[in-house]
Design goal:
Layout: H1 7-30, H2 37-67, H3 81-95, E1 99-101, E2 104-106, H4 108-125, H5 129-149, E3 155-162, H6 165-178, E4 182-193, E5 196-206, H7 213-220, E6 226-233
Antiparallel strand pairs: 1-2, 3-5, 3-6, 4-5
Protein name: MgtC/SapB/SrpB/YhiD N-terminal domain-containing protein
Keywords: Cell membrane, Membrane, Transmembrane, Transmembrane helix
Family: Belongs to the MgtC/SapB family.
Length: 234
């Protein structure tokens, strides 16, 4: 006789989903990302539940066909129907974690982690533990260690507001030269604020692998003439 998932099987799959998603969620929460522990766990649990429901639908269809052979040509149980809805629907939740601020985009990695956590939940829910475990290990390695192993030096836009043009400009140029920061382009503007000229330079820079953009912001902010320093992702 074809039977549905047992209570023990359901509990084990749900616990595995909580463990896998919880570890990934802790990593996101530790890095102060928009979606943390509870969000990742809930997404993975939801995907796991949907996958188990889909399996039970398939079991029910097979059992019905076994009991009533005359219905074989009528019964349909598409194993991918509900799963496909999870894969496409999770995009709406992921989009909510993407923030656009001052021409900078943040949250793409978290949105991707939510989507892949849902995929892990589906694998666990379907009972594909090898795929689930392998997927979890690779995802955790990518989130936790890939950035430390492979450091990509992106071109960033650095916005600097300052006063006392000549002295401050010399300080900025000397700082870039000292730290081997390549300036690939610059945009300049000036406004009058509180009867004082405030200059704004937007640099397109490549700062290599030896320096972090946080260090650049902190280093430039040490000058008293510099009012504001911020990075803008390209």
């Amino acid at each position: 006789m074809i039977s549905q998932l047992s209570v023990l099987t359901v509990v084990i799959r749900l616990l595995v989903s909580v463990i896998f998603a919880g570890i990934i969620g802790i990593d996101r929460a530790y890095k102060h990302r928009p979606a943390g522990l509870r969000t990742h766990v809930l997404v993975c649990l939801g995907a796991c539940i949907i996958a188990m429901i889909q399996q039970n639908i398939g079991f029910n269809a097979l059992e019905m066909a076994r009991q009533y052979p005359q219905l074989k040509g009528v019964l349909r149980a598409d194993d991918a129907r509900l799963i496909a809805q999870v894969v496409s629907g999770i995009g709406f939740l992921g989009a909510g974690t993407i923030i656009v601020e001052h021409h900078s985009i943040r949250g793409l990695t978290t949105a991707a982690s939510l989507w892949v956590v849902a995929c892990i939940g589906l694998a666990v829910g379907m009972g594909d533990y090898i795929i689930a475990i392998a997927g979890f290990l690779v995802v955790y390695a990518v989130l936790g260690f890939l950035k430390k192993i492979i450091r990509i030096s992106p071109v960033r836009k650095l916005k600097i507001e300052y006063v006392h043009k000549i002295d401050t400009k010399k300080f900025i140029d000397d700082y870039f030269r000292k730290n081997d920061i390549t300036v690939e382009g610059v945009r300049f503007s000036v406004i009058k604020r509180d009867d004082q000229k405030v200059y704004t330079n937007v640099y397109s820079i490549d700062f290599g692998k030896s320096l972090d953009y946080v260090d650049i912001v902190e280093g430039l902010s040490m000058n008293d003439n510099i009012i504001k320093v911020e990075t803008i992702n390209v």
